[in-house]
Amino acid sequence: MAIQTGNFSDLGVSYESGTNAALLTAIARSAELLSGKGWPDGVNDLLEALGRVTNVSRVWIFQTVSLTDTHITQNYTFEWAAAPKYKQIGMPMFSMSTNKIDRPEYRALIDSRKRGEWQKTIVHELESGWLRDTLEVQRIKSMLTIPVMVEGEWWGTLGFDDCERAYDWSDVEVALLKTAGYLLSNAVLRDRLNAKRKQFDIVKQITDSSPWAYDFRTGQVWCASDLIHSVPMPTDNFRLSLRSALKLVHPEDRAHLLETVRSYLSQKRDVFRCDVRLFTDCGDLRWVELMGNVRWSEDGTPKQFAGIAVDIRARKREEERLKQEATTDPLTGVMNRRMFERTLQRHIELSVDEGVPFALLLLDIDCFKGLNDKYGHSLGDQVLRNFTSICRRVLRADDCLARMGGDEFAVLLPGMSWDSAREVGERIRRNVLTTPYYFESTQVLMSTSVGVTVHEGGVTSPTRVLDNADIALYAAKMNGRNCLVTTADTNCRMKDGRGPAS
Fold first, then answer.
1. Mapping DSSP to helix (H, G, I), strand (E, B) and coil, where does residue 376 land?
2. What kind of fold does domain 8-192 have according to CATH?
3. Which CATH class is domain 208-317?
4. Closest CA to 196 of 234, 237, 230
5. Which residues of 377-391 are buried (b: 16+ CB within 10 A; e: fewer)?
6. Mind listing the pLDDT tens digit for each residue in 345-377?
7. Which residues of the chain have pLDDT under 50?
8. In this predicted model, what pLDDT tens digit does every residue of 105-137 receive, in sequence order?
9. What is the CATH number of domain 328-490?
10. Which of helix, strand or coil describes residue 327?
11. Domain ranges for the chain
C-alpha cells in the first residue's frame, strides 16, 4: 500500500456534518491557516470555519483594551456573521466602548472571564435584569463565550451568538472550542513576539542592544543569542537557568548586580539600570548596561523582569580615558598631583588607624632648567619620561610614583622603614646618575636630589607630610645636589606645621 499524503482540504469531513469530528477538523484546519497567515490575517478564516460548523449566527472577538476596578474598555475587533442581518462590527456601541463595572452581575461576569472560565447561557432562562435585557436587544437566544488568555492575563473573549436557536452547548463542544481559544492565544503571543522582535531590531540598530527577560515563576532567563554568542546562531534566543545566567557575569560584578536587583524590587522603582561585564562564548568580556522593568501581579509579587542589554564598551573606554586624564600626568603617564594627594591621604589614615607605616620620597632632577634652556623643551620632555622609566624599574608594583609639577616627583612606599626607604631612594639616585641618555648623538648627564620621610602615625595632614619630605629635599640640594637626605638624618621634621624642629 502506497503512503498517502495530503492537506486538511483533502480530508473527507465537511463543515456541514454537524459532528464533533467536523468541529475538530475545522479547528485543526484553522490552526494550519493561523500558522501560515498568522495574526490577524488568519483570524477571519478561523471565525468563519467555527461559525459554519457550529451553525451559529455570529462568531466574534472582543479585545480587552484596559481594565480597572471601576471601568472596562473593550474593542469589537473581529466578527463573522452568517448573514448581513447578524452583523454588528462597526456599530458605535461596540467600537472602543468603555463601561462602568457598577452592577454585581457584570462584575461577576468579568471576574469569571479573568479567571479564564467559559460561560454559556440560554437567554430566556436568565432572570430578568441588565444582562438579559442587553442580550435580548441584540436578538441573542443563546451564547457561549471563551476567554482568550495570553501569558496568564485576560486578553479578550471569543464569543458565539445564536439568534435563531436556544442552543445548549455540550461539554465536548465547549472543550473543542476552548482549543480554538488556545489557538488565538498562541497567535496573539506570536504576534507580540514578532512585534517585539521588530522593535528590538530597530533599537539594536540604534543602540547596539539585545533583549533579555527573567520569569520569576519558572526561574528561567531568556536572552537574544547575540548577547552571549560572538557569531550568528541558528536560533534567535536562548533559555538559561538563573545560575547559568549568573555564570556569564564577571565574578566581580555578580554581588553588585544581585544587590542592585534586590534594591530595585524592594523600592519598586520605575527603571532598573546596572553596568556589568558579561562573558561571551569565546571567553571575551564585554561591558553592557542592563536596563528593564518588572511586571507585577495583582497580589504585588513580581511576574516578569525584562529589558535590554546595551553594549557600552565604547562608553567605558571613554570613561577610562577621562579617568586617566583626571588622574594621570599626560607627559609621563604616572599619577598627577591631585591623585597622589588622595592616595597619600588614604595611607595616612591607614597609618593612624592601623599603625601601618609608609615612606615618602620627593625627587628633583638637578639643573633641569639648564637642560631645558640649552637643548629646548623637546629634550626636557624626553628627560622627564626617561626619569620616570628609571624610577619604575626600581619600584614595586604597589609603590606609587607621581609627577608633582615641573621636574619634581614623589614616591610613596607602603610599609617601608627608614632604612628600606633610604635604600630605595639611593638606588633611584644611582640609576639616574649611571644610566646614559643621548639626545641627537649628545650624551646628557642627569642626577637627582632626594628627600625622604617616614610616616609612623601622629601627623594627619598630607600637606604636613609633604612639607617634611620637602625640607629634606631642600637640605639635599643645599648639600650640593645628587644626594639623599632624610628627616631622621637632619632632625628637620616640622612640628605643628610651623617650620623645622630646633
1. coil
2. Beta-Lactamase (3.30.450)
3. alpha beta
4. 237
5. eebbebbbebbbebb
6. 999 999 988 888 999 999 999 999 888 888 788
7. 1-17, 493-502
8. 889 889 999 988 889 999 999 888 888 898 999
9. 3.30.70.270
10. helix
11. 8-192, 208-317, 328-490
